[in-house]
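Q: I have 153 residues here and want to know how they pack in 3D. Can you give me a structure?
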Amino acid sequence: MSVAFRRDGDEEHLEPKFEVPIPPGPNRVTPAGLALIEQRIAHFEALAASETDETALAAARRDLRYWKARRASAEVMPPADGNIVAFGTRVTFRVGGQERTIAIVGHDEADTASGKVAFTAPLPRAMMDAEAGERVDFNGKAEAIEIVSVEPL
């Protein structure tokens, strides 16, 4: 029998909506990262309260569950002292002859376009615990990165 004759609706052909995946590992956040989580929760609570479209409401509730889970698991890290590369530091480094600066932050605060990189990304992991003036291996190359300066966020 043709599908057209046995279906009651189109719901069986819709893609299932899964929960937003939570990054593995600890949920380390800066104070600014915790504030960002609180802003997102407020945004999605307001959206869920005002939304009338069922699909949009389900999406807002799903996002709200994600942000509430992130708030519940958030570990606000103490401020870094800036002596070594660590979570919550701004690092200026030289790689391939070019100087760059990144801030090492949590997953939810990360935004590579603005220079905020998650602490679990390969670049920050390679530089962790290094001091200004030190060279570290990266991407299979010995002493590929030179740490120029480290400061707290």
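Q: Anything worth noting?
A: The CA atoms of residues 110 and 116 lie 5 Å apart. The mean pLDDT is 89.
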